[in-house]
C-alpha cells in the first residue's frame, strides 16, 4: 500500500474491506456488520481462499478480515502471501494460533463469535491508525507508541482527552484558514517547528478533528494538506 493510497483512503474515509470466510452465512453476517459502520464498505465475501491473492490484486481493498481455518490453505499461510493490512478472526483461541496470526502480520485478532460493537471498535481503531500513518512522513518514539495503542482501540476520539495548548493552537490555525494548509504553513502560523506541527497535525487527523488530503506544491510534488471538518 503506497503513501498516496493511504492518504486517499484517509481523506475519503471510504475504506473497503474484503471478508474471507468459508461459511457463506458467517461471511455475509460480517459483511453486514461492516456496512453498518460509517466510512466502511464490505466487498462480496469470499469462500475460497485460493482466489484471494488475485482478488486483492484486482480489487485493492484497504483491509482483509481473514478467517484462520480455511479449506486448501490456512489464514496464516494466506496472510504471509498478502501485502495488505489484515485482521484475523477465529474461534480457535489457543495461544499458538494467536501467536501464529500475529507473527504472520495480523494487526489484530478477533475471537469468534463477536458482535457489531467489537468489530466496530477494531475497525475504527484501524482507521485511526491508517490516518496517523497518512498524516506523517516519519515518526518519533512517541508517535510509534501511539500507533500501537491506536490499533488496539486505546485512543478513541470519543474519550475526550486533555488537549495541549500547542495542539489547540494548531487546530485553531487550520480552522481559521480559508484554504487547506500544508505543514510548513501551519508551523509558521503557530510559531513552532515543522516537526512539532507535523506531530500535532497527525494527532488531530487521528482523532478526526481535521481532515487530510493530497495537494500539490509549486513544483508539482504531492504534499499533505489539512483542513477542518
Jot down its keywords.
2 domains, 48% helix, elongated, 10 helices, two-stranded antiparallel ribbon, disordered N terminus, Arc Repressor Mutant, subunit A, 7 strands, 229 residues, Rossmann fold, alpha/beta
Describe the structure.
This protein has 229 residues and is of the alpha/beta class. Helices cover 48% and strands 16% of the residues. It has 10 helices and 7 strands. The strands form 2 sheets. A 5-stranded parallel beta sheet has the order 2-1-3-4-5, with helices on both faces. A two-stranded antiparallel sheet has the order 6-7. The radius of gyration is 19 Å and the shape is elongated. 38% of the residues are buried.
Q: What's this entry about, in short?
A:
The protein is an alpha/beta fold and 229 residues long. It has helices at 3-12, 24-35, 52-59, 75-81, 95-104, 116-135, 141-151, 165-176, 183-190, 194-206, and strands at 15-20, 40-42, 63-67, 86-90, 108-111, 210-216, 222-228.
Radius of gyration (CA) equals: 19 Å
CATH class of the largest domain: Alpha Beta
- Can you tell me the residue ranges where pLDDT is under 50 for at least 5 consecutive residues? 1-12, 156-161
Instruction: Assign the CATH topology of the largest domain.
Output: Rossmann fold
Classify the oligomer: single chain
